[in-house]
Design a protein that fits this description.
single chain; alpha/beta; Rossmann fold; Helicase, Ruva Protein, domain 3; 2 domains; five-stranded parallel β-sheet; two-stranded antiparallel ribbon; 16 helices; 11 strands; about 15% strand
Length: about 325
């Protein structure tokens, strides 16, 4: 298929996104970056990890998006005493005929909000692993498929906060994007005050359905990625593993482990979704730069040296993007 045909297809299929954004903006003030990245994850069939202090409308954003798409929504509040079966479901004994039947847990929904995911120990966080990766859940001896689309949107408090557990590396790697949410501006804060202090229920109504999202995903898959862009993505990921070869001697001691091949896949898929959001049938280097930090920031494991010198993974990602040649 030539680029003009893909372009036309994308422009036609992405029209509903304006309607979706407009409805979500009725409830959420500001946070354009978060909403854009949530749509990218949705179109690229990925999961999203949202980090920020409490009270920044992270939960509200996820809930509003689920309402606007008319998908099923479940919220799981992670606490230190939560059990894996509280998420995936369990087998219940039927005394009448002596058999067991499966009672599905809250993970069986289109949109699952894992609220404050780092308030639970690793065993519980890992209960989501199979669901996120395989889109299925095993209860007892039986495996059950999850509904389509299926998306986990997890919120976490900054790790320095009281009563938080770090997420296992394997779990973190399953999230396509990690988005940092910051405080609103003064103007936005005033608008939040006016909108939210009135206690009026704001209705979100769109014609968007889960089927439309699945159709948009098919179009997103067909977006053109040039050979030079593919090389650019691979060079970026390799620079996180072998910074010296990319001319980044200074930061090589700060990286304990670089990004996995999953980063290469996710960066490509997220860039395609970002191009779709912008009504384009092809990926540009600018798409990679815009989405790159969100894909890479949680995949670079820092050394003790970096922590001692207060170097963040965001600083390292920025240096990598500055060093790698743009096609």
């Amino acid at each position: 298929m030539d680029i003009n045909t893909i372009n036309q297809q994308v422009q036609q299929e992405s029209l509903f996104l304006q309607d979706l954004k407009r409805e979500i903006a009725k409830v959420i003030v500001g946070q354009e970056d978060l909403l854009e990245k949530m749509l990218v994850a949705l179109l690229a069939d990925g999961h999203i990890l949202i980090e920020g202090v409490p009270g920044l409308a992270k939960t509200l954003a996820v809930k509003t998006m689920a309402q606007a798409i008319h998908g099923t929504f479940q919220r799981i509040q992670f606490t230190p005493d939560l059990l894996p079966a509280d998420i995936t479901g369990t087998q219940i004994f039927n005394p009448k005929d002596g058999s067991f039947y499966a009672k599905p847990g809250p993970v069986f929904a289109n949109f699952v909000l894992a609220d404050e995911i780092n308030r639970s120990p690793a065993k519980v966080q890992s209960a989501l692993l199979e669901a996120m990766q395989e889109r299925q859940v095993t209860i007892g001896e039986k495996t059950y498929a999850l509904p389509k689309p299926f998306m986990v949107m997890a919120t976490q408090n900054p790790v320095e906060q009281e009563g938080t557990y770090p997420l296992p590396e394997a779990q973190v790697d399953r999230f396509m994007l990690k988005v940092l949410v910051t405080y609103p501006t003064k103007e936005e804060e005033k608008l939040i005050l006016e909108r939210m202090s009135a206690h009026q229920k704001i209705d979100v109504s769109t014609q968007v359905t889960p089927e439309m999202i699945l159709k948009a995903r098919q179009v997103t898959d067909g977006i053109y990625v040039d050979e030079k862009i593919k090389n650019y993505i691979v060079n970026l990921v390799f620079a996180t593993r072998y910074p010296k070869e990319a001319g980044l001697e200074k930061i090589s001691s700060f990286i304990a482990y670089g990004a996995s091949p999953r980063a290469t896949i996710f960066l490509t898929q997220a860039a395609k979704a970002y191009a779709f959001l912008n009504g384009r049938g092809y990926v540009t280097p600018e798409d990679i730069k815009t989405i790159g930090a969100d894909v890479l920031r949680h995949r670079i494991l820092l050394s003790y040296e970096a922590e001692a010198e207060n170097i963040s993974s965001d600083q390292i990602v920025k240096q990598i993007f500055d060093a790698v040649d743009v096609p």
